Amino acid sequence: MQQLLTGQTRLPGFSGEWEVRYLGDLCKLKSGESITAARIDGHSAYLCYGGNGLRGYTSTFTHDGKYALIGRQDALCGNVVGVEGRFFASEHALVVTANTDIAIEWLTYVLSRMNLNQYSESSAQPGLSASKLVMLRIDAPSTAAEQTAVAALLSDLDAELAALEARLSKTRALKQAMMQELLTGRIRLL
């Protein structure tokens, strides 16, 4: 996966050199908006994201479209999640708005593999600064088509891994049940 995200391995049909670019040249990073706990509930229309991921629901939204969110503060500072549709981003999340020539799905994969937590400011509560992150260098395909192809392949691989993990979990549960039956003598082998 890392080789696809850095251009060391190329997909068939694509050529040309990847460019080293600053993150700030690929997207805009902006903190979300302030929201009180009283405005967050478990049943309103729009998802509300904070620094540690999903916080709940709210009746208003700040964004509509495809974005990446970076946890800006708290324990999961630096975590990355892709979101789509209408949602509310709190001040504890950085909203990544990709430039028009950048595939947000590809950028989300890249950001999620960068261990962004390492760039947090040292203090009582870890935090990421947008001004620091925009200066990070990233190897980027020169075309959105290649970015989209890389993201699609990685998404397919993620789906396949999830299916295999689900199958493994079911097989482990079956083994546990069979062991229980065999070890208690309820089922005997001939």
Automatic annotation (TrEMBL):
GO terms for molecular function: DNA binding. Residues 154-181 form a coiled coil. Gene3D superfamilies: Bipartite methylase S protein, DNA methylase specificity domains. The keyword Ligase does not apply. Residues 17-168 form the Type I restriction modification DNA specificity domain. PANTHER family: TYPE I RESTRICTION ENZYME MJAVIII SPECIFICITY SUBUNIT, TYPE-1 RESTRICTION ENZYME ECOKI SPECIFICITY PROTEIN. This is Type I restriction modification DNA specificity domain-containing protein.
